[in-house]
Amino acid sequence: MTRYYLKAISLIFNTQLQRITSGCVIVFAALLITVCDVQAQAEWPQLVESKDGTSISYEVYGAGEPALIFVHGWSCDSRYWREQVSAFSKENKVVLVDLAGHGHSGVARETYTMEAFGEDVKAVAEATGSRNVVLIGHSMGGAVIAEAARLMPQRVKGLIGVDTFENIEYPLSREEFDMMMAPLQKDFQAGTRQFVQQMLYPNKDAKLSDWIKADMAAAPPVIALNAMEELMEQMITGDAAKVFDEIRIPVMTVNGDLWPIDYEANRRHMLSFEAIVVKGGDHFLMMNRSAEFNDALKQAIKAIVNKN
After folding, report:
1. Residue 194 pLDDT > 90, yes or no?
2. Which element (helix H / strand E) includes 227?
């Protein structure tokens, strides 16, 4: 955003230097620089302590209800929502969260459970004064927003998963889990690149795909592996589905078409469940298919609001 102000400064100076005195130019420049400085300060992340004292970084844009709190996925951070900020902050308060161990948030936590991540989201919701909230979670962020909704039932009006909740009853076995974790444990960077590649359509933006793989592979291995273990443990024990038995709010998803959705399995636990599928969308459709994704997300938000 700041670069657009700087471009405007340049254009104004080119036309105004010939018309006004040097003293006026200095005053005018000072005013514009002040505006840019205020804008820059407004975009700096803020910090709040989670329940266990871990510092959680978050950003706030715009105003309006319901507040939309965006929660990233495994080994990602708030940057993965950059294509949604301008599209949704015109009418709603948009809040981007860095979960503990991710982005600019603290890394001192010993165990990165989904419930602890939910406490991170709760702390941010309270810090921003958001009382009428729709939680939006990508991938692992789906499990996180479910926990967050359980922790603050009076605030959360609905959940929107992004390429997640395909089947919350999926019976993951220990053998499957061990096979999935083995490459990550052997060589985290190479294993993560291979893991992420399976979630990307090959015909998408190659540079963006390379950036996603490199960025996620650069995550702290100890934190990433622990978070993955905690997430998968929920699927093994069935807790991934059980949490929804306590959450009596509507659930929507905006998914790509890489994996099928088991509507009936989800509806056995959710108050209501509907999905919008973006054809040709992969796991990172909010980034590489942002226009179609944003349209679908607006539909999902509208549906949540209407149900309330």
Report:
1. yes
2. helix 221-237
Instruction: Name residue 182's amino acid.
Output: A
Are the C-beta atoms of 138 and 77 separated by less than 8 Å?
no
Rama region for 61: left / alpha / beta (φ>0; ψ in -120 to 50; rest): beta
pTM for the model stands at 0.86
At 276, which helix (H) or strand (E)?
strand 272-277
Residue 80 near residue 73, CB atoms below 8 Å: yes
User: How far apart, in whole angstroms, are the C-alpha atoms of residue 81 and residue 85?
Assistant: 7
Cα 193 from chain centroid (whole Å): 20
Decide: 270 and 241 in contact? Cβ < 8 Å.
no
> How many C-beta neighbours within 10 Å does residue 211 have?
12
Give 204-210's long-range contacts (Cβ < 8 A, gap of 24+): 204/282, 204/288, 204/289, 205/288, 208/284, 208/287, 208/288, 209/288
The predicted-structure confidence for 93-128, as pLDDT tens digits, reads as follows 999 999 999 999 999 999 999 999 999 999 999 999
Decide: residue 281, CB within 10 A, 0-12 exposed, 13-18 middle, 19+ buried.
Answer: buried
**Confidence at residue 43, expressed as pLDDT on a 0 to 100 scale:** 63
In angstroms, the Cα distances linking 15 to 2, 25, 267 are 21, 11, 62
> Where does 102-161 have alpha helices with state H?
114-127, 140-151
Whether the ω angle into residue 221 lies within 30 degrees of 0, i.e. cis, is no
The residue among 93, 67, 92, 95 whose CA lies nearest residue 81 is 95
The one-letter amino acid at 130 = S
Per cent of the chain over pLDDT 90 is 83
